[in-house]
Write a structure and sequence with these properties.
The chain is mostly helical. The chain has three helices and no strands. Keywords: Signal.
């Protein structure tokens, strides 16, 4: 009987915790996404300009800058530092 009570209590905690994660409003989500999108665009344009000045391959630079800026964005969201 005690195991069932503990299991029910644990399930209640899990359900309550999952409800807390779903409280972000649509406006908050858009604001959060816009912040990172603006940083990504800025990073990408800067990287592309520098890469094209050094190299002549636009396709290579687009892929390289996309990967680099996406990596920086994910690292910032996860609060980690990237070592190059």
């Amino acid at each position: 009987m005690a195991k069932k009570i503990v299991a029910v209590f644990f399930m209640c905690i899990v359900v309550m915790a999952s409800l807390q994660f779903g409280n972000a409003t649509n406006e908050e989500v858009k604001k959060y996404e816009a912040k990172y999108e603006a940083k990504y665009v800025s990073c990408y344009e800067n990287c592309l300009r520098i890469c094209l000045a050094r190299l002549s391959g636009r396709g290579y630079c687009e892929v390289k800058c996309d990967e680099d800026c996406e990596e920086k964005e994910v690292a910032e969201k996860l609060h980690i530092q990237i070592k190059h």
